Amino acid sequence: MLTIHRPARGVRLLADHPDEDVTDAGHAVVVDGRRFAAIGPYEELYAAYGDRARIREWDGVLTPGRYEPDAVALLEAAYWPDPREAGELGTDPLTGAALDALGMTGPRWGASARRGVQRLLARGTTVLAGPFTRPEVRTAVERSGIRRYDSAPRTPRPRALTPSGVADFAVFADDGRCLVTALDGRLVYRGRA
Q1: pLDDT band for position 155 (cuts 50, 70, 90)
Q2: For a tag site, which of 117, 144, 166, 192 has the least CB within 10 Å?
Q3: 127 burial level (CB within 10 Å; 0-12, 13-18, 19+)
Q4: Is the CB of residue 64 less than 8 Å from the CB of residue 78?
Q5: What does pTM read for this prediction?
Q6: Which fold is adopted by the domain 2-64+161-190?
């Protein structure tokens, strides 16, 4: 399925290198299945693909997704409370003595990791640093479809939107809120406008 993603504020081709980064106003991306088919001026893409593509318009800037270098600490050394536990535990991740007091089990680690991954997707994260040693956390990450690097690079690996590249991206509003996160061309998070 072809989809044209038309962000109101343009397309930012690179992440992690703001000095080299350019946002192209008026640009859009075409996603064909799991990959980018084209990136360029919306009018040109619409002329080439519009008769057979679904059009999605976003009020923000479309960028490569975020890289989370602290994913191991966020998912293996913190407990993300279930919303039903909010009255007792709050909504922020628990660490240290509060985490120790929970008496964590494998299933509880898995549920926590799934909620943590969802929160990271809601921040526009598409890549995590690993490796993950807890089997339940590793399973939650693998099932989510989010990419991971199992050896932390010395410097963040540049991520770029390129034709034929994997269609992982995020759309951010002017105030920094993530509006959309996509993995392999699938919308895995959609915030409120």
Answers
A1: very low
A2: 192
A3: buried
A4: no
A5: 0.89
A6: Urease, subunit C; domain 1 (2.30.40)
